[in-house]
Specification:
Chain B: This is Putative ABC transport system ATP-binding protein. The complex is a heterodimer of chains A (819) and B (250). With 819 residues, chain A is an alpha+beta fold. The chains are: A alpha+beta (819), B alpha/beta (250).
Amino acid sequence: MPRNAIRSVLAHKARFLLSAAAVVLSVAFVVGTLLYGDAVTTSFNRAQARAQSDVAVKVEPDLRSTKLDDDVVARLRGLPGVAQVRPIADGYAFLVTKSGEVAGRPERAGGTSFDPGRHRLGAGQAPVGEDQVALDELTASRTGYRAGDRVRVIVNGVVHPVEVTGVFAADDPRLAAGGSLVAFDLRTASERFSPTPGGYTAVDLIAAPGVGQESIAKSVRGVLPPGFAVETGNSLNTVRGDDKLTSILLLFAGVALFVAVFLVANTFTMLATARARENALLRAVGASRRHVLRSVLAEAVVLGLVATVLGYALGIGVAAVLNSAFSVLNGPEVPLRVFGLGALGAALGVGVGVTTVAAYVPARRAAAVPPIAALRTGLAPTTKSLRRRNILGAVLFLLGAAVTAAAIDSQDLIYLGAPLLMLGLIVLTPWLAAGFTKVLRGPLTRLRGMPGTLAVENARRNPRRTAATATTLMIGLSVCAAVTVGISSAAAKDEDDARTGDNADVQITTIPFSDLSSGTVADVAKVPGVRAVSPLTPVAIDLGERRFLSVTAVDAASVRDFLPLTVRKGSLDDLDKGIAVSTATADRYDLGVGSQVTGAMRSVGAQDKPVTLPVVATYDVPESSGQAALVPVRLAPDTASPQTILVKAAAGQDPVQLRERLQKSLDNPVLTVRTKAEAAEAASSAAQSFLTILYALLSVSVLIGALGVVNTMTMSTVERVREIGLLRAVGLSRKLVRSVLRLESVVIALLGAGLGLLAGTGLGVVGVLSQDGIPVVVAWGQLGVFVVLTVVIGVLASFGPARTASRTPILTAIHADTE
Amino acid sequence: MAIMNEHTVAEADRLGKVYGDGDAAVVALDGVSARFGRGEFTAIMGPSGSGKSTFLHCLAGLDEPTSGTARIAGTDLGSLDDEDLTRVRREQIGFVFQSFNLLPTLTAWENIVLPLSLSGRTPEKAWADQVVAAVGLEDRLGHRPAQLSGGQQQRVACARALITRPEIIAADEPTGNLDSRSGAQILGLFRRCAREWRQTVLMVTHDPLAAGYADRVLFLADGRLVDEMRQPTPDLVLERMRRFEPQEVR
């Protein structure tokens, strides 16, 4: 049996080629994802370890206000079994490279206190005082800095010119994750990074030989007051792998796989038709149904095995490309483990499993062929009624549509509605194909004459096959359409928010994980061409009883120029003397002009300050700005970091020029300075690049869908070679033969794309509607591109088959024995 | 060299056809020359492998001869490109094959007018009615081939061959798959084509009864024209055919 299966697959290798290609692509996608995911997880684990290997216990303040100072360190020092106590002050410090950029990945730009126990000096000396730092060797080699160089380091938004005194090696997770490490002496680090004066951010305890981590942790807990987190090194380093990326990739691989199932099933169905007489002959000479079934399934297994091997090899390549192109962490490279047991198992499951499952139904149909069929010439196509299928499809589709519609109010329902709807659509596609082609017959005949009729009739002669082919494209494109709608809508909202949120000409923010310094506001004000400047500094007022009012500290004089406020009562002229609240806040806290807000002004790194503020105005503000309450900036502590600094240009000042001047004069790479238009563009371009990644992931599914069309066109052209010969004999030129096949192919492709795009857009719209406050944006241009793409797929898919068909000599065609 | 008189519609001039090359070469046609006049119904006969079908195919532009010339209405088919050859097939020749003559996706009527639709023309009402009446399919026009009997299908194929008023009707074993009654209908139709509509009918057959409907019979053997018979009757044809047999046995 295996030998026969192999022989049969080889004999029909041209027909199996595209199915194999589809399975190879799916397997490669899955394997590539798993291998790459494995490498990513390994590097994440390295990067997420929170303690160095020699640390027995780490003590950290639970709250930022908890004081972890020398008193605490002294208490820990005396504990039994503790060999060493290392106070640590850690935070973000951005090293500026020679080309004026931030060195390493900003989210892992570490600043720390130098400690010979953690940092092994390779060259130079330990830093001493405010003006000296040491760099880790990876960063030093990347930036080309050496001991003795003058460099700039940005901490809390402030640029510090310092001298590099040494280069060290360290075993720090931030480095494993592609970050950088700037070490100050302990006092300087404490000043810069600790939220409390004279404090530290953590204390590491190293155990004496033979002392267990747990026993130290126990004694630490015994001597410390509440407000501290005490964890052992082991528990800190037990991180769960971040599998999110792998899951997302696998999801898209799953879509590709699903599409491949249809292609494989379609191939085996067409083969069953093509070989009906062969199978009937087998049955006539005594083969049982089971024998035929098994022989077809054996072919599927052979096909699956071949595809698995090729797919695995391709998958290794995919993973290697992913690993080098999208190195997530940019840290020291993690080698791929090429043979993971999981990946091997998955490849076999996907390759062989999917092929066999997909071939099962066609195999049963092949086995069901009656022996008498061997003797019949011209086997009439079995047109089994679609009635039951249509009813099932309609029920599924309507149910899916109803659940999806309900998802507008309860968004989780879409996870049930969308699959139901798509499943219903897939089941209904033959019926829709028949309808679609019926509608098309008239117009296409008028437009293209008899070739049009022939193309449509060919597409509709076997609605199941047309439907299965269209489905391969439908699935991929429906997901494309859904994500397009969702992300375009979100992008439009972001862009709109950026446009309407404030009235600034230029906006200054920072790169992620950095802070703006309150001193920057004064620097900005000095730049020529600036008419007004205001920070938006988030602070909070503790009203007592665990009620907090979020407040934005602004420049009282110019706030009306910057924020789109509509004053309801009172006047913002008096803002310098009190607080203004939005109408929503006024309702919530029962405030009004004349009443008072009493509480403690709270901000990171500063003592609470009691305040009593009269409400001077109430205002309405669009949701995109959303300031709940405004206070003059003088009330915010100096340490409070502005979220944004808004700048108004002087009359006649070009914002782009002003932006350039600001960038030059501030000269700080952690700052992002943008004009209003640039900010709006940046808001939407982030979403666009996300969309591009999704398209790249979906392109595999669409590619397999395209292969499906090629597959069907190839096989049905072979089946119809006699018809084509006849058409040529009665006067269809080669050119028209090609045009008939091209039209047919485009009709099938458009059917799939049309259904997919409609369904996907619908689901995307529901998805957006279920999120409050996001307007629906259907990117018609993008959808148009998909339609054009589909036509291109259709035309390309017909190319090979049409060439072969039009070149076959008429007589060969007429006498071909294809039935 | 061929001097065509005005009544000659098709002409074969030393047509030769060799399949394969070298040792494997098989000579199917070995220099057959013949002329076919307007309104003449010719049957082409010969034992299996005599080259009779190849001769028809080459003459009617379905196959390319390896030597010699085939002319339709004075035009050398070998000088035409695919577009022109296609037009000749569509407009000047009507084909009827032994089996598989119709497109399963089209109705009988659509099959009949197919050659016209392919060139974007609409059928001439009076002629179309006459053709449909001649094949007796008035009430079957909306049916698909699968819903028609074999004889009816072949009559649809004949109607299709006639619809363009071609000068030549080329039929390859048109009655081979039919019962005698249906066969007689088709042959009667061909005779009417020749007599009434002055069309040139070329028919390959191995059935002496069918050949009896023709005006003359050409006999081919081993790729050569070996005999010709005017005003054939089935008996005469059968007699002539028998003379091929000993050769075959030998």
